[in-house]
Write a structure and sequence with these properties.
Two copies of one chain form a homodimer. Chain A is an alpha/beta fold and about 325 residues long. Chain A is about 40% helix and about 20% strand. Chain A contains twelve helices and 13 strands. The two termini of chain A are about 20 Å apart.
Chain lengths: ~325, ~325
């Protein structure tokens, strides 16, 4: 097997984040589940945006965040996701290109606009997200180049990709192409509500096609419908070769066969937790594809997560360690 | 004279900021004067954007920043400025509306896109700006509603408005309408290079039509072509009824007739100085139009400036005191 050109290929919903600080009452007034991601249509998106305080627009998208952070840490990275040919789409393309991520997906012309995620950040740093999928829903199998998948050590898929119906097929095509080429497939569960929406499909995928699984405590317990983290972790140990389970300020637990590695969180002043899980996966995969130990991979994940939660927005503003 | 509906009416270039942290060498590679604002065309804007690191997009524009901050401090505020009917124009309109600023200017259809200011922030917190004026250049006398001007205690003009040629006429129309209604006219000099470009016009305006002048040390010495702050301040005392001259971490000096008030800066960890002068003017004018003393006005300016320099972007993210 030849050396792949990329360490990581991410596939996900290409989204621009619209981030506003709000107070707790804003969430209750708008019937939001704190900490969750909800899907909204364009009419609701316009209404909610009109009610939101002044915002900052930054590139987002779960797998795209992971790709950007991994590239900033020295990994060679590619990304597939659908933006529209509009101003926010050009913002997304600029930002991911500026950190050296290869982004070959053609933009959508004359259809829905670039996806937006309206993110409410409460004073405790928790983010609550409302996503209008826009152009994302047109990402399909035609956008997945099997040769590119074969040329990446790890293909990384975000669970949110199960929401746009076309993307599920793209998801499966990518996983099959990766395994046909002897590469690995990683999945992030993304969100407990997303897991609830697609549990059967997730279970089938995780058991049959995923080598590396990322999830936080609520997501992994939602997947296995258990109440305890320990029980969910035991199921993950059975289902996947490698799992990295994050527990916020309690750090993360890495599971590989009989091995268990506990990793401490890196302390940070929490301003906005948006992108924390994405950044953890980035540090972890950048380390893993550079041949680091599991403990080192987990620490790199913790370092990256600590950087992004210390300011508004899911992409790093400060210095990150390099694995290159 | 009836009580005006608005405390402040701002008129300026309606701009979306594109903010990236860069190292010092980025500025020298791109021949930029650190701390200055340069005008660029759309081709140069595209080239520079392509070379910039990942960015955050936030609403900007000097007078618009002042209006937003003053409204957040409890003042009743209106704003005139030209955006296009595009995504970034809608971002601008959302953000200024979300803090309660009345913004009646119709967007430009089918012309240049919404203006962008590409802002490079160096590790010392200094910002270097490159502005593509886009839709701003179409702001003209037709956009200035004399009745609205008459209904604001202070009409606040940014010096940058001298750059788009149509706006100079709008500038003069607003100043005349304000004085005809017995209101006051305030001006911010904006930038030393802008003062150099339009010195004669600025001098004529300041001597004949401005009641309240805002400038920092380099701007006021550029206006009067002197080397010393004391000399420039003496000229300002002669030319305008009230001047607030800012000196970064040395605070500000307020001059009114024979009176001089020294105001201390409010300590802050400097991340990005973008919008510091705008925020100072906001705090000052919010205080002044609420009947506060000059020392209180200066302190409110210092408090607002300290907030905006403690994070990326020119609009406040945290709590500001209210004058209402």
């Amino acid at each position: 097997m030849s050396q792949p050109r990329f360490h990581i290929l991410g596939i996900g919903n290409a989204i621009v984040d619209v981030v506003s600080p709000v107070d707790e009452s804003f969430l209750s007034r708008h019937d939001m589940h704190k900490g969750a991601m909800a899907l909204i249509d364009s009419v609701t998106a316009d209404k909610l945006y009109a009610a939101m305080p002044p915002a900052a627009e930054t590139s987002g998208g779960s797998a795209a965040n992971t790709c950007a952070v991994a590239a900033m840490m020295g990994a060679k990275v590619a990304y597939l996701g659908k933006v529209a040919d509009d101003q926010l789409g050009r913002v997304f393309r600029h930002d991911i290109g500026a950190v050296g991520v290869h982004f070959p997906t053609a933009p959508l012309h004359g259809g829905a606009p670039t996806a937006r995620c309206l993110i409410m950040v409460t004073p405790d740093g928790q983010r609550t997200m409302n996503t209008y999928l826009g152009a994302c829903v047109t990402l399909g199998t035609a956008d997945v180049d099997a040769a590119l998948v074969a040329d990446a050590a790890v293909t990384y898929l975000e669970g949110y990709l199960f929401d746009p119906p076309e993307a599920q097929a793209a998801f499966r095509k990518a996983a099959e192409a990766a395994h046909a080429a002897g590469r690995q497939v990683a999945l992030s569960l993304s969100d407990a509500f997303c897991v609830h929406r697609h549990r059967a499909a997730f279970r089938e995928l995780v058991e049959g096609h995923i080598d590396i699984l990322f999830a936080n405590e609520t997501e992994i317990t939602a997947l296995y419908e258990t109440n305890t983290f320990a029980e969910a972790a035991a199921w993950a140990r059975r289902d996947v070769a490698l799992a990295a389970l994050t527990r916020s300020e309690a750090g993360s637990v890495i599971i590989q066969g009989a091995e268990t590695v506990d990793v401490a969180a890196v302390p940070a002043e929490v301003i906005d937790t948006t992108g924390a899980g994405d950044a953890y996966a980035a540090g972890f995969l950048a380390g893993l594809t550079a041949g680091k130990s599991l403990a080192e991979c987990g620490h790199l994940g913790s370092v990256a997560a600590a950087e992004v939660i210390s300011h508004y927005g899911a992409r790093p503003q400060g210095h990150l360690p390099s694995v290159a």
